[in-house]
Design brief:
Keywords: ATP-binding, Cobalamin biosynthesis, Nucleotide-binding, Transferase. Pathway: Cofactor biosynthesis; adenosylcobalamin biosynthesis; adenosylcobalamin from cob(II)yrinate a,c-diamide: step 2/7. The chain is mostly helical. Helices cover 57% and strands 6% of the residues. The strands form 2 sheets. Strands 1-2 form a two-stranded antiparallel ribbon. Strands 3-4 form a two-stranded antiparallel sheet. α1 runs antiparallel to α2 and α4 packs antiparallel against α5. The longest helix is centred in the last third of the chain and has 25 residues.
Length: 189
């Protein structure tokens, strides 16, 4: 099988149900999810310590689910609504978030990406995930999409944030705080 097909040489690509321009909102959305998946793979490669086995397994599952997200967004026409991303996946992410949060130190200031290599890589995943979510919102503003994908991406960026903090905590590395900020979290008003 050849890698090149020459079918995209004129600036179009195939999606499920037709062909669109390569800069179509649909392609931007699932393309950003593909980019995110690459960064998740990179983050896994930085999680060499045994203490990260649970996070590696979660991230490997997330990579599979990101393919599901991209697949759901690649449909131009889907008459029978056989979406792959389900609400249960969002709820499971919430459980993982709660598990990580239980390990993390209290947040008082905004966190700047940094600390360990693994944590830094997870922060990159978080920011790319936020962009993927924005692309899905843009696409959903004028085309029918699986709404569970938007919710999944929203929760996933939260997961990356808390997992990045967990990575630092497990290694005994302090989060990098935005020191020019007053303490804004955990205040009593």
């Amino acid at each position: 099988m050849g890698v090149y097909t020459r079918t995209g040489d004129e600036g179009e690509t195939s999606v499920i149900g037709g062909r669109v321009r390569k800069d179509d909102d649909r392609v931007e959305a699932y393309g950003t999810i593909d980019e995110l998946n690459s960064f998740v793979g990179q983050a896994i490669s930085f999680a060499e310590e045994e203490v990260f086995e649970d996070l590696r397994q979660q991230l490997a599952e997330i990579q599979q689910e990101l393919f599901d997200c991209g697949s759901d967004l690649a449909f131009v026409r889907l008459s029978d609504k056989k979406y792959k991303v389900k609400e249960e996946m969002v709820l499971r992410l919430e459980q993982w978030i709660d598990g990580c949060e239980a390990e993390n130190p209290k947040v008082e200031r905004f966190i700047i990406p940094g600390g360990s290599r693994f944590s830094s890589a997870l922060h990159v995943c978080r920011t790319v995930c936020r962009r993927a979510e924005r692309r899905a919102v843009t696409l959903g503003s004028h085309a029918e999409i699986n709404p569970a994908v938007r919710r999944y991406l929203n929760r996933l960026s939260d997961y990356f944030f808390v997992a990045a903090r967990t990575a630092n905590a497990r290694l005994g590395v302090a989060d990098v705080e935005y020191v020019r900020s007053k303490k804004v979290f955990g205040r009593k008003e």
